[in-house]
Amino acid sequence: MMKTLVIVFHPSIATSVANKRWLQELAQYPDRYTIHDVYQAYPEGKIDVACEQALVEAHANVVLQFPVYWFNCPPMMKQWLDEVLAYGWAYGTGGDAFQGRKVALAVTAGIRQQDFTPQGKWSVTLAQLLAPFDVTLAYIGADKRRFFAFYGAEDGPKEVGYAERLARSAQAYERYLAAL
């Protein structure tokens, strides 16, 4: 069985609570998951495209894990998408690296789930915010899977039972990835 590549795009994983807890859960299963922290791998911001492409090619499944960052993705994730998903490799003539490869998004949102509804505070769903990523994955021919999300991360310290809710989420995340 080929491992799942979890590509982490968090500008400050050391201070993260939710993303870091998810990674702690996955680290218990090194035979199933390769965890690749892009910000740690490239602290100067210069991505090794060939290395990233080789990592993808060596895995059956790819998960892009990131915090929702100003209702979008962190800057280095956008850079990764722009540089790594190159013509002739990810799309276009000969660009079939993602054909049939299962790809999923795993996101943490600071905002509560009820605020991500048409009637909620922001009048938009998380699925709507993630639509550009869905279109990108469709464009490169990936076998796109539904996203996995944790909501309300910014309320954590004030929420009674937050640690337990986060632990349940981390366990559910591992089960979700195991079922890809």
Automatic annotation (TrEMBL):
Keywords: Oxidoreductase
Superkingdom field: Bacteria
PANTHER family: GLUTATHIONE-REGULATED POTASSIUM-EFFLUX SYSTEM ANCILLARY PROTEIN KEFG (PTHR47307:SF1)
GO MF: electron transfer activity; FMN binding; NAD(P)H dehydrogenase (quinone) activity
InterPro entries: Flavodoxin_fold (IPR003680), Flavoprotein-like_sf (IPR029039), KefG/KefF (IPR046980)
Domain Flavodoxin-like fold: 2-173
Protein name, as recorded: NAD(P)H-dependent oxidoreductase
Residues annotated as transmembrane: none
Pfam families: Flavodoxin_2
Gene3D superfamilies according to UniProt: 3.40.50.360
